[in-house]
Amino acid sequence: AFKAAILIQQWYRRYVARLEMRRRCTWRIFQSIEYACEQDQIKLHNFFSYLIEHFTPSSSKERDFISRMFVSGESFKEAELEKYCDYESMEVPDSYTGPRLSFPLLPDHATALLEAFKQKQQLHARYVLNLLHETRKHLKQLPNISHVSTCYSEEVTVCGDLHGQLDDLFLIFYKNGLPSPSKSYVFNGDFVDRGKQSLEILIVLFTFLLIYPKEVHLNRGNHEDHMVNLRYGFCVGLITMSRVHGKKILKMIQNVFCWLPLATLIDQKVLIIHGGISDTTDLDMLEKIHRNKFISVLRGKKRKESNRNVEIQEINGESKVEADPAGNEAAPSLSSQPQPAQAPSMANRLEFSKWVRQTVQEQIEWCRRLADISESEEEELTSSSVVSLTDLDGPRWTRQEEWKQILDILWSDPMPQEGCIVNTVRGGGCYFGPDVTGKILEKYNLQFLIRSHECKQEGYEFCHNRKVLTIFSASNYYEIGSNRGAYVKLGPDLVPHFVQYQANKMAHTLTMTQRQGFPVALISRVEESAFRALREKLFAHTSALISAFKAYDKDNTGRITLSNWATAVESVLHLGLPWRMLRPQLVRSTADGMLEYKSWLDDLAMEQRSQEHIQSSLLEVIYRNRSNLETIFRIIDRDHSGLISFEEFHQTWKLFSSHMNIELTDDGINDLVRSIDFNKDGNIDFNEFLEAFRLVKQSQ
Q1: Region (Disordered) spans which residues (predicted)?
Q2: Is 147 an active-site residue?
Q3: pTM attached to this predicted model
Q4: pLDDT tens per residue across span 101-143
Q5: DSSP 472
Q6: Pair 145, 261: CB distance under 8 Å
Q7: CA distance 276 to 200
Q8: Residue in 45, 163, 223, 245 annotated catalytic
Q9: Per the count of CB atoms within 10 A, which of 9, 87, 303, 377 is most buried?
Q10: d(C-alpha 429, C-alpha 411), whole Å
């Protein structure tokens, strides 16, 4: 009996270990593909930034167009934004049966919204724009770092990424209760993208923010970024859902995103940021940055950096004039720096405050002319800018330094090794080690950090000797059953208490017999989804794989060893996966340990062609480049109409041709755009855009 029990125990442990190994391999596949996609997005961005840096517009109209499309994108004056998003002129039809909002908002409005969204109803665009307008007004008054105290509530609940998964938010509220004066929440960014109900999540969170401004706190994540939204679905989903007012809503949301606070401090002891930190993270700088400048954190705006340095020198009182070759000082190209009026007495605080504001505004206007900053980038005095005015003699940072601070806290990840290195896997931010965490905690007298940004199988994970906590609230993120969601509750003792969940309707309908085999079935389903995505990735790089295989096939036999297969695949895909372990799922076993790589690639092509009736060489190109082509299309489609106008195409092609040194006349560009407009409606839709690439590939 003892021997039988030990044997059963061994079998069971071996079985569980194999299941866990399968789960971990599946996880590695999903995560590697996700990060590779983010890396592609940043590379695409760097490419466009390079084009802008080296493009010389031939006219002011051309310069303004390119600036609007790629650089300042969505910048509006206050009056222009309100006029563009004028919700008061919109009429709500009598046939509308959805929820209605009136301001100031009350708890009943939030309850009605939740019930309406559960019934799959939508909020009318008038109320959405009104809500966004009020949210923006509120956010502008908030500091860059929010401060929360457990003295006024029993506990503070911190939620991680939601990514448009409204069911997870419903489940959190069901388990933990709605926000209230006694129940504070911190939502740590990445509210949108990937999921199908991003707008609904924003509406719910913004509604509770306005009802309970002291109890609900929102941090900005790396997906609260216009350029990231172009790739991961939020922009397209919003325009598709509301074709009449979608562009206005999107424009307003972009402006709201850049006003979101960057971090939250609980009891001055727990720092909550979306991504992480670096060895240069400076909370004092973060508190004083004008966060609304960065509509997209992916844009560094290096072009004006030299002008910014001039601006800083002038503000500090250092005269900046150019010298001619003979050594004589040239006259300044702009009007001289304005001299402030005589300061009034400090006794009259009102007069002194008005004098400071007027003087600073004059300096800003002069520096704007000096740096050639357009009026559309004009900023108002907000809480963050007023903070910086109180320390006129303090340090001045370059825009590049400010940008890096925000990039690091939104994009960085922890690593087990010591030090701080560039995050080459994501393409943005850095990897920070336990020594970097320790220094930041000691410098600012903190107990630990809470961050999100990474999907975790259990919904949360500690690292760095329990000094860094990752919390992720979107369950079933990659596939049903791939991961749990979680949130963490902190009381006055700041000891974290976790609640895990899985918003999976399928699991709730299973019988007891089905539940016994449910974990295995889920692992199989998730595993199948992961390997399907991996095969698509392999197929998309067929040409590069053939070249890599041939390097090991010196005699041109069409066969290579399985070990060489694993090495070659990694050299092409750079996913960092354990290919030898994954091989049985990707390659049929052979008796002599050799692989006929051409027939293996033919099998991959056959699998993809069964889904798309296109020749395999063309399909390979589309699989590899579709995401990039779609993102490029959305960037060119500046007004998010789903169509590229002839003017948008014309100006963008001039940008490309200047980079590639291709001489093309305006008539030549017009002929090109007309040839792509297959249905001759005066615009280019995405199918026509994709078809143009297909025809070029076929002709090659």
Answers
A1: 309-343
A2: no
A3: 0.74
A4: 999 999 999 999 999 999 999 999 999 999 999 999 999 999 9
A5: B
A6: yes
A7: 27
A8: 223
A9: 87
A10: 5
